[in-house]
Amino acid sequence: MPSGAGWLSVSVVICCFTEARWELLLHGLASVQSQTLRPEQLVVVVDHNEDLYRRLGLYRRLTGALLGVEVVENSGPRGLSGARNTGVKAATGDIVAFLDDDAEAAADWLARLIPLYDDPDVLAVGGRVEPVWESGRPAHFPEELDWIVGCTYKGLPRVAAQVRNVIGANMSFRSDVFERVGGFNASLGRQGDRPLGCEETELCLRASMGSPGTRVVYEPAAVVRHHVPATRGTLRYMLSRAWSEGVSKAQVTRLLGRNQILGPERRYVRRVLPRAVLAGLRSCGRDGDVGGLARAGVILAVLAVTAIGYLQSLWQSSSSPARASGSVLYRLIRDNSGGKPSD
Q1: Contact in structure between 256 and 330 (CB atoms under 8 Å)
Q2: Reduced to 3 states, what is the DSSP secondary structure of residue 215?
Q3: What percent of the chain has pLDDT over 90?
Q4: Which of 273, 234, 235 is nearest to 144 (CA)?
Q5: Would 191 disulfide with which of 60, 68, 79, 270, CB 3.0-4.6 Å?
Q6: Cβ(16)–Cβ(44) under 8 Å?
């Protein structure tokens, strides 16, 4: 794809950690291999699972389906951030794109993402993540809360626009971003079944703070479909994920030492959620839709749990060295310091 600096090569990284997603992983790999804009490299990173690593190797030898696919083991800490950093080290492309192991990319996914890098001020580009519900969307689960299952939620821009951060299941970065500011923070992000997050948010903020005037862009035309198991539609999971989101946002606030990072959350709470609650109540009152009442109640519960998780996490660490180290990190980023992803 042409750019002001010439043709941009693309590496795609998929991180995996469990054999339970085997079929989903194969579908995701096939979707990358059939892109209209073919990447020069496809890297699969196995996160500390020897059985899965061996199974991928055996599958490649027996079927030939993964010819040209590089399968490597996570050389960093266990967890998604460590695995992604391993993928970054293995990547050779000018652009490094990431797809989740339970997601499938539309055929024109990369063809939609990469042209935005024609603008040299664009550091990262993310796309739309559509949920594919295993058992259908639960009546109590509003689209405004789809971030809980790692998908694009109602309230994001409908056309290409500058945003604070990309969504992990569908994102890409210039490779030199990692060289300048380092990789994903291994203290953030999902670790096995622990639903922590915000590692993408923290990296996007760190990159933008290190290069004033640059942009992170959301392109909704670049689509991936993300599998959502039935267990993630339960109220129990929603509240657990909401708590973890609050904790994760508190971690990012401490690390970067500035509360201004929560501007998008404040706009979301002021504008998007009130409309969603009113829509649910109107649906219940006008149409007798009990699900509308449930959606309104769930929104309020998720908002409360997220806020409590955030405030409690900040309070617990208010006297810890984390606050001081966060201000040091902020000064380093402000001065354009950084390094490569740690081992």
Answers
A1: yes
A2: strand
A3: 66
A4: 273
A5: 79
A6: yes
Nearest-angstrom CA–CA distance, 281 and 143: 15
Which residues partner with 44 through β-bridges? 14, 71
Give the pLDDT score at 297: 96
**CB neighbour list of residue 279: distance below 8 Å, 6 or more residues apart:** 292
Burial class (CB in 10 A: 0-12, 13-18, 19+), 177: buried
Q: Given the structure tokens 């059939």, which residue do they identify?
A: 34
pLDDT digits (tens, 9 = 90+) for 187-211: 775 655 555 677 898 899 889 887 8
Total length of the chain: 343
DSSP secondary structure of 150-200: TS--BTB-SSSEEES--BTTEEEEEHHHHHHH-S--TTSS-BTTB----HH
Q: Is the model's pLDDT at 67 over the cut of 90?
A: no
Cβ neighbors of 201 (< 8 A, separation 6 or more) are: 164, 165, 249, 252, 261
Which pairs with CB-CB distance under 8 Å and at least 24 residues apart come from 86-89? 86/45, 87/13, 87/14, 87/15, 87/43, 87/45, 88/13, 88/175, 88/178, 88/183, 88/341, 89/340, 89/341
pLDDT given for residue 170 in this prediction: 97
- CA 273 – CA 289 distance, rounded (Å): 19
DSSP secondary structure of 273-310: HHHHHHHHHHHHHHH--HHHHHHHHHHHHHHHHHHHHH
Q: What angle do CA 307, 141, 264 make, to 5 degrees?
A: 40
What are the CA-CA distances from residue 41 to residues 32, 88, 137, 251, 276 (Å)? 10, 12, 35, 33, 42
